[in-house]
Fold:
Amino acid sequence: MADIAIADLIKRYGETQVLHGIDLDIRDGEFVVLVGPSGCGKSTTLRMIAGLEEISGGTVSIGGRVVNDLEPKDRDIAMVFQNYAIYPHMTVRKNIGFGLRAARMPRADKERRIDEVAALLDMTALLDRKPSQLSGGQRQRVAIGRAMVRDPAVFLFDEPLSNLDAQLRTQMRLEIKKLHQRVGSTIVFVTHDQVEAMTLADRIVIMKDGHIQQVGTPDEVYRSPANTFVARFIGAPSMNLLDGASLPPGTVPRASDGAVLVGIRPDDLHPVTDAPLVEGRVTVREPLGPDTLIYVDTPSGEVVAKADARTPPAVGATVRLGAAAQDLHVFDAASGAALRVA
Amino acid sequence: MFANLTIRQKQIAWAWAFLALPVLFYGVIRFYPTGNAILISFQDWNLLGSRTWAGWENYAKLWNDPVFWKVFVNTFEYLLIGTPLSLLISFVIAYHLDKVRFMHGFLRMLYFLPFMTSAVAMAWVWRWFYQPVPSGLFNKLLASVGIPQIEFLNSTTNALPAVLAPAIWAGLGFQIIIFMAGLRAIPTTYYEAARVDGVGWWTQLTQITIPLLRPTIVFIVVFSSIGFLRIFDHVFNMTTNNPGGPLDSTKPLVLMIYQTAFTSFDMGYAAAQTVVLFLILLIVSLAQLWILRSD
Structure:
């Protein structure tokens, strides 16, 4: 059990700076997900917490202790890798037990610990198998088992689900969440998948180009994105961003003197009969079951809206789209930052 | 006619069309001489006269020839010293070279250079190294620190290791390259996971690196064993005035075959020796593949 404090964390590779002074406090027992597009620095941050990358500037503290110059093994952490890093020539038992090799405890205790972890992960029957005889999900569980067996203060996950197929990913996501609820350790989880971030995290850290864009609960980052990047990154399909000037006068709350962008989530934009925000021709329909997504060509560009699945407008038809005033997000057009609407 | 064939038949026809050349090559250049050698081993032939049937006579002669047994032991000494030693040295070099970034390519080239050098030239340079003072490099170095002269090539005990040394050195470059390719193929996350788990370098080496290098090790062991069992050019060139060293102390099987065939012109006897060498190579290679098989 430990909290993590990251202060002004910087990473440089020669001349190139990839992390520009990150500040982040992770509470004890919290599940924090770092999310962002590739190259945003999320994996680098995780590897610096782990001690696998050298820290160019700033500090990382775990449990109140600055760990900048500590070896990974002395940081009381365990890590699960994207390719699982389980050894093909060892049985599941040996793989899980490998995490305990360096631990000074009697052999019987080690065996008991391995059995406990295996039981917890529902893998007791697989202990004598080799990794080649396991499915992708089972291998993933071995990797998690190897991390758990050491009972670390902090778990670090580096895109652990990205090698699994969609169905298995959903299943493992659930298992990891259950595991966190049962074990209660601090978890830092890296992913590029915003759905994973939303479903797993207590708090989400959205990163881009080596900067943190926003830190908040899944609800916060969804309901009040800090800028247009977060607005478009979180939520699928992405938020529509419309030029404020193209909308009917009076719809945009005047929050700044400059040009503004108005963001509307497809979930909040529906066909209406009166007082439309935009109007255009339906180009594509995507039935999802409960709803149907419609892509509409408007003078302000293409927008996505949600229509009732039972009475969706036809392709080629002209529709009027509207949204409730409280569902509009206003951003400064130049900086992209969210504007607080009075 | 071709157009009437099924897809499967066309595939077979094309496969044989492409295979024709190598099949012909192997048949004429490899299999025919091999079969002929086995046949000759049961005959008497001096290369010019007619062949006469000899039955098992050549093999019986071989069994009772003390030189053959001396040569047999020498050949296995080359194998049993050369293979493990070259394996160990090349692994240690590759393991460390893999971690070196500074002038990596240049260092690798230096190690690979002997492999590209002509064995004849190399043997003659080493032969010069082994000379007594004032010309020999090694003895001059020994003399400068006051150590008595060592007879390298003229001693029955020192000659074989002295001949083996450049042979090992010559093969190192190749083995290092293969080892480095094997080391590179091991994912770095295996070592990162081990570091996070607090596993020391020795455990990493013995529990991760070496087990995962098994296919590489099998390849190098088999390859270098065949090389040492067939050693010839280093021995021949380092002991030209007395091929095979003092009292045949460095003579390997291939040199004995060469002398029997092209000094004594006893083709039948040489062929019998060749068949024995072939069987040794076959047995040693199969044994190694079996011992080092993956489970």
Q: What stands out?
A: DSSP finds 13 helices and two strands in chain B.
